[in-house]
Amino acid sequence: MRPVNTHAGLLAEFLRLRIDESGKTLAVLSQQVGYSTSQLSTHLSGRVPPQRLVVGLIAATVPPALRERREAEAVRLLRDAQHPPRTPARPIPPVVPVVPVVPGQDSAVSLAQAQAQQLQVYERLTRALEQEGELRQAAENSARLVWVLLGMVNTLEDRVRKLTGERDQLAANMDGGELDAARRRVGRAEEQKATAESELARAREKQRQAEELADRLRQEIEALTDDLDRLRGDGTSPHDHLPTRATPSTGPGDQRDAEADDIDAALARATAVNDQDADTIDRISTELTGTPAPVPEAPLLVPDNPLTSPDTANKSAARLKEEAEAAAEREDAPEAARLYGTLAAVSTAYFGSDHRNVLLIRGNHAYWVDEAGDPAGARDLFATLITDCTRILGPDHPDTLISRHNHASSTGKAGDPARARDLHTGLIKDRTRVLDADHPDTLISRHEHAYFTGKAGDPGRARDLHAGIIEARTRALGPHHPHTLTSRHEHAYCTGKAGDPTRARDLHAGILKDRTRALGPHHEDTLHSHRQFDYWTREAAGA
Hints:
- It comes from Streptomyces filamentosus.
- 74% of the residues lie in helices and 1% in strands.
- With 543 residues, it is mainly alpha-helical.
- The longest helix has 66 residues.
- It starts with 5 loop residues before the first helix and ends with a helix.
């Protein structure tokens, strides 16, 4: 992308030099300044950035001793980029009445003056016609894209309905393996639909901006044409050979029915067209007004309403986030998974996949997919998230470690406890190194490791691991903390499974007493201990 003006190019070069001097990557900077790597690349290629980004980049890349001076230089360059000096050809010169050519000493001067004015207006008119042509083409591209995306959204709505029906039928038939695959297909189709709706909103906005600028240019072209005609008089002029603007086609183009496996590629092409038109509009807007086309400050719209009811107000991303959090608060796992999935798709399309907030939303989506009863789907989502968190945040970042923990647990719940045990083994080592042996997160990993060790068929080993966790949690949290009591419960259970029901009965008797005192006689955990005590009492009597 070429700079929108010379001063924007100088600012981009200045900022790139500061980044090169710092040695930081765009992935690292995106976390420090709050912009995705794709947004940084765009602004560093010559688009006029907001002042917040300029100041943030200077703070992130320049040593404190030089920061104030560099920031002043950057702000000065930004001001020049936002308000570039107009070139001599930009203003329309005042029209001077044509002086008839009569014999005399002033006739040559008057003729030269008229010809100079005529040439100046001609150059401005030529450029205005070229700009109008570019804007009409951008508007036509956006109109075609709107038409294609409308068809794509309708197709995806039908696809979601069809796949949802297939999923519900499999759920009724209790077909576990096929049901997991059907859930993943539904999730993917919903994410594709959200992305298509986001690009549709962008295309409509670009079409509106291009048409407004083109209409403004048309008025200027008409005024310039009148001025040039007055300056010409009856003689010939370069105006006779002005370029003509191609008339845009009236139809939206040939329809393409995208197949299911081509949807992602089609969405990528739509994004590329939107990006290209945005660059054209920003460049011409800067040439006309000195500033890029304004970016709406309103929250990102999520056009998730049926296209048959366009008068219904769309939800903002903030509203969608509130609904997802509310569903999570009331523990409505299927609804939370659906809402976070939609929010993840829209946020990725708007901010880019490397944005910190997008990573957090993706983590919430995967968690609630697990809670909704699809641990295999959650496992796969967490696996991808771990790769991205490791690349963007680093292997020791808390969010990366949390993603690894959830991935291991989902793996166990999906039916592979041995693999989950091994994943937790590696995580314990890293959390102990990064956090501490007695850190609550490390102790949770140790608990999960012991749990899946038992599930993998080694209750004796699990019993011993839980005994060590009881000591650590008693030391770190206290003997009556709910986590400590949970470890004692698991230890007693594994003791019984390892072949000692009498010892398991006695351990559960002590846990029941302590839970009754700490939690009350009617707490769910207390009642669970009651049931376990009764069970192992019967097992011990029959041994």
